[in-house]
Amino acid sequence: MSRLLDENCGISKEDPYDPRITVGNRTNIYENPWMVLVSSSKMCGGSLITRQLVLTAAHCVFPEKMYVRLGNYETVNPEPYCVNNHCIPRFYNISVDLKIVHEKYNECLQNDIALLRMSEAVEYSDYVRPICILVDEQMPSAQNYTVTGWGKTESGKFSRILLNATLYNLDISKCKEKYEKPVDRSQICAASHISNTCRGDSGGPLSSKFCYDNKLLTFQYGLVSYGAESCEAYNAGVNTNVSYHTEWILRAVQNMDYFSIWAAKTGQDFLRLCGNSI
């Protein structure tokens, strides 16, 4: 029988104080409460999947101290974000106390998936809420995905405001032809004729909505892995297939207490997980 990894997932709402832009791809302040900024040697995206776990790309994980930023919308302004006298709270940072990377992640960016455990659990709100991960059931196929991030824009600078774009699902052969790396069903090939992901978007979610238990919820299908250096539209990008790795995520969640004991004994905060082994 299917279930959700977190029953409080996938719910967002429209912002009545900040009308949607009809031409462009700026999001509103409530639209992506699962979006996380991952801070370390490089800027990456991530997604909140439980009260204490963030899903991101393995190539975004580094040995040094890492932090995640939640409730984030505008990255550089330390003050609350206000529109028409309506303000959202300032974002907040939480340190990462455990990093779990897929054991078979390699330099070809296969199995490019990781979990970051926050040092404390978060409280859910309109601005902080997990995205849905479907357990024990195959996800319905999606023709397109929404991707979100603060990555570089046409100006060559990182975006101050959280942006989104629509990417279309392509046959995996398109990415096999383009890149001199192995690409298989553990990955998703996607592109758009008007936009693309770029540096800084890695680890961010590819999502789509469908009805589950009579509710329209947002589910995570993939996460941004790599693409063309130019970041131009029409260039297909390769994304980690989150659905393919659901069992890996579940094993990590189920063994979290054991990992905590291991980390306390060894003084380490980084481990590789494949199957039930470390």
SSE topology:
Elements: E1 3-4, E2 35-39, E3 43-48, E4 53-56, E5 67-70, E6 81-83, E7 86-88, E8 92-102, E9 114-118, E10 134-135, E11 144-149, E12 163-170, H1 172-178, E13 187-191, E14 205-212, E15 215-226, E16 237-241, H2 246-254, H3 256-266, E17 270-273
Parallel strand pairs: 8-17
Antiparallel strand pairs: 1-10, 2-3, 2-5, 3-4, 4-9, 5-8, 6-7, 8-9, 11-12, 11-14, 12-13, 13-16, 14-15, 15-16
Family: Belongs to the peptidase S1 family. CLIP subfamily.
Pfam family, one: Trypsin
Subcellular location: Secreted
| Order of H and E elements | EEEEEEEEEEEEHEEEEHHE
Distance between the termini: 29 Å
So what's the overall shape? globular
CATH architecture of the largest domain: Beta Barrel
Kindly report the name of the CATH homologous superfamily of the largest domain. Trypsin-like serine proteases
Number of domains: 2
Mean pLDDT: 87
Helix content: under 10%
Give the helix tally. 3
**How many β-strands, per DSSP?**
17
Largest sheet: 6 strands, antiparallel, barrel
Classify the beta-strand content into a percent band.
25-35%
Nearest-angstrom radius of gyration?
A: 18 Å
Task: List low-pLDDT spans.
Answer: 16-24
The strands making up the biggest β-sheet line up spatially as 2-3-4-9-8-5
Fold-level CATH name of the largest domain: Thrombin, subunit H
Report the CATH C-level class of the largest domain: Mainly Beta
Look at the helices and sheets and give the structural class.
mainly beta
GO molecular function: serine-type endopeptidase activity
Family: Belongs to the peptidase S1 family. CLIP subfamily.
InterPro entries: Peptidase_S1_PA, Peptidase_S1_PA_chymotrypsin, Peptidase_S1A, Ser/Thr_Proteases_Immune/Dev, Trypsin_dom, TRYPSIN_HIS, TRYPSIN_SER
Subcellular location: Secreted
